[in-house]
Design brief:
The chain is globular and about 60 Å long. The protein is an alpha+beta fold and 462 residues long. It has 15 helices and 13 strands. 46% of the residues are buried. The chain starts with 19 loop residues before the first strand and ends with a strand. The chain has a 6-stranded mixed β-sheet, sandwiched between helices. A 3-stranded antiparallel β-sheet has the order 5-13-10. A two-stranded antiparallel sheet has the order 7-8. Bound molecules: protoporphyrin IX containing FE. Protoporphyrin IX containing FE (HEM) binds next to helix 11 and helix 15. It comes from Streptomyces wedmorensis. Belongs to the cytochrome P450 family. This is Cytochrome P450.
Length: 462
C-alpha cells in the first residue's frame, strides 16, 4: 500500500509517493520508548526491516524513521530550511554556550562562516604535524609485550592532539588541566544524554547538571587564561584558537571572548570522543581481521618505507583511508541524526506534517544489505577504486553519512579523517594490537562506545 510520508499524512490531499510502514506495536502511553531505550541499535535495524519510511511512537509526538539514502539526503540538506535541528538540551547549552553546534538560523550561519576557515584542508595540514608528533611519542613509549587499555590510550592521545591543535598549549600541565575538566564535563553530558536527564525539563536541578556547571566553570577559567596569553603574544601560532582570534565576519567584526570560548570548547567536544572511539573500533576490527591488518601494514611499509607519516603521505595512504571509512561504516560514532519537520517539509515527494520528528540512523543504514555486499563484514576494499578509476562497489550517496551532510555537515570532517589516518599509520606501522577479547559490544550513548575496557597486548612488528 502506498501512502504519504508522515505519521498522519494519510489524511492529506497531495499525491502520495512514499510508502509508510507501521512500526512495532508499542505499549500504552509510552509507545515504542521502552523498546528503543532497551536497545536503540537493534530497534532501528528492526524498523529498517519494515521499510524505508516507518511510523513509530516516541513518547507522545509523531515520529518517522527513514532508512533510504535519498530520504536521508533530503533531511540533511533541508536542515535550516524545512527541518529544524532539535534542541540539544540544557547540558549541552551549559557547556557549549551558543557555539556553532547549538546555534540556529542567522546566528549559526555567521558562526559557521567564522569557524570554517580554521578547519580548511590548508589549515589541517598545519595541525597534521602535531597529530603525527603526538602519535610518534606514544609509539616511542609502547613496548613489545606491554598490556594496554586501548580506550584509555586512544582517549589520552586524541585529547593531547585536541588541546594542542585547538588551544596551542605546549606544556603537559596546561594540556592536563584543560583535558581533565573537559573529561568531567563530557562524561556528565554522556550520562545526561542517555539517562533520565534526557527527558527531564531544563529547569530540574540534578546532581549531574550541577557537576556539568562546576566543570564548565573550570573550563571557562582555563580557556580564558589561554586566550589572554594568546592575545598578549604571538598570533601567528599554528593553532585553531589563533585562527579564531584573527577571524572577521563580513562587517569586519571579531568573535567576542565569549564566542571564542564557545567555539573552542565546541570544537574540542565535537572532535575528541568521536575520533578517539573511531580509533578504538578500528583496532578492534583490525585485531579480528588479520587479512585486513596485513594489507594495511603492506601499504604502510610500501608508502612510508623509512619515514614517519605526515600530511603529504595522506593521499597515498588509500588503504589506510579505506580502513577508517569502513570503521566509520560499521561503527559510526555518531549513530543517529534527527530533524523536526516545519511547515512545507517533504520527504520522498510527500508532505511531512509539521512537528513530526524524523529519525535517521547511521547504524541502520550503514548495515543495510541493499547498499553493501556482505554488509556485516569489515571489507575496506569496497572503498577502493580499480585501475579503471571505477569504485569497487557502487555505494549510493548518503548510504554512508558518519559526518552527516548538507549545510550542517561536520566541520571537522577533514581534521578527523587526517587525524585517524595518521594515528593509525604511525602506530600500525610499528605495532599490532592483539585484543584480549572479541566480544565487545557497542553501547550507544552520546557516541558509540565499546561496552567495556578494551585490553590488548602490544606486538612489535619485525
Ligand atoms: C570521527 C570523528 C567525527 C565524527 C564521526 C563526527 C560527526 C559529526 C556529525 C554527524 C555532525 C553533524 C550532526 C548533525 O547534523 O546533527 C557533526 C557536526 C560537527 N562536528 Fe563533527 N565529527 C567528528 C569529528 C569532529 C572534529 C575533529 C571536529 C572539530 C575539529 C568536529 C566538529 C564538529 C562541529 C563544529 C559540528 C557542528 C557543525 C554545524 O552544526 O554547523 N567534528 N560531526
Amino acid at each position: 500500500m502506498t501512502r504519504q510520508a508522515g505519521p498522519d499524512a494519510g489524511t492529506r490531499a497531495t499525491q502520495p509517493t512514499a510508502t509508510i510502514a507501521d512500526g512495532p506495536r508499542g505499549v500504552p502511553l509510552l509507545g515504542n520508548l521502552p523498546a528503543f531505550g532497551k536497545d536503540p541499535l537493534a530497534f532501528f535495524e528492526q524498523l529498517r526491516e519494515r521499510g524505508d519510511f516507518v511510523r513509530w511512537r516516541f513518547g507522545r509526538g509523531p515520529a518517522l524513521f527513514i532508512a533510504h539514502p535519498d530520504a536521508i539526503g533530503e533531511l540533511l540538506t533541508e536542515v535550516e530550511r524545512t527541518f529544524d535541528q532539535p534542541d540539544l538540551g540544557i547540558a549541552f547549552r551549559t557547556l557549549l554556550g551558543n557555539g556553532v553546534v547549538v546555534a540556529k538560523g542567522a546566528d549559526w550561519r555567521r558562526k559557521r562562516s567564522l569557524v570554517q576557515p580554521s578547519v580548511r584542508p590548508k589549515q589541517v595540514r598545519s595541525y597534521a604535524a602535531t597529530m603525527a608528533e603526538c602519535a610518534v611519542s606514544l609509539a616511542d613509549r609502547w613496548a613489545d609485550g606491554q598490556r594496554i587499555d586501548i580506550k584509555k590510550e586512544m582517549a589520552a592521545l586524541t585529547q593531547l592532539i585536541a588541546v594542542r591543535t585547538i588551544f596551542g598549549v605546549d606544556t603537559a600541565a596546561d594540556a592536563e588541566s584543560i583535558g581533565r575538566a573537559m573529561d568531567i564535563a563530557q562524561k556528565e553530558i554522556g550520562a545526561e544524554f542517555s539517562g533520565i536527564g534526557a527527558v527531564l525539563p531544563d529547569w530540574v536541578p540534578t546532581p549531574g547538571r550541577a557537576r556539568i556547571k562546576r566543570a564548565t566553570a573550570v573550563i571557562d577559567a582555563e580557556v580564558s587564561r589561554v586566550v589572554s596569553r594568546h592575545r598578549d603574544g604571538d598570533t601567528e601560532r599554528p593553532d585553531l584558537l589563533s585562527r579564531l582570534l584573527a577571524a572577521r565576519d563580513e562587517t569586519g567584526a571579531r568573535l567576542s571572548d565569549r564566542e571564542i570560548r564557545d567555539e573552542t570548547v565546541t570544537l574540542y567536544i565535537g572532535g575528541h570522543e568521536t575520533t578517539s572511539s573511531t580509533l578504538v573500533w578500528a583496532w578492534h576490527l583490525l585485531s579480528r581481521n588479520p587479512r585486513v591488518r596485513e594489507a594495511l601494514t603492506e601499504e604502510l611499509d610500501r608508502v612510508l618505507a623509512d619515514h614517519e607519516p605526515g600530511y603529504d603521505d595522506y593521499a597515498a595512504l588509500t588503504y589506510t583511508q579505506a580502513v577508517v571509512k569502513e570503521t566509520l561504516r560499521l561503527y559510526p560514532t555518531i549513530w543517529l541524526i534527527t530533524g523536526i519537520a516545519k511547515e512545507g517539509a517533504t520527504l520522498g515527494g510527500a508532505p511531512v506534517p509539521a512537528g513530526t520528528r524524523v529519525w535517521s540512523s547511521q547504524w541502520a543504514t550503514h548495515r543495510d544489505p541493499r547498499w553493501y555486499g556482505d554488509a556485516e563484514t569489515f571489507r575496506p576494499e569496497r572503498w577502493l577504486t580499480g585501475e579503471d578509476g571505477e569504485p569497487a562497489e557502487q555505494i549510493p550517496e548518503y548510504a554512508w553519512f558518519p559526518f552527516g551532510g548538507g549545510p550542517r555537515v561536520c566541520l571537522g570532517t577533514r581534521f578527523a579523517l587526517v587525524e585517524a589516518v595518521l594515528v593509525l599509520a604511525v602506530l600500525a606501522r610499528r605495532y599490532h594490537l592483539d585484543l584480549a577479547t572479541d566480544d565487545i559490544r557497542p553501547v550507544p550513548s552520546l557516541t558509540l562506545q565499546p561496552d567495556r575496557d578494551v585490553h590488548a597486548t602490544v606486538r612489535a612488528r619485525g
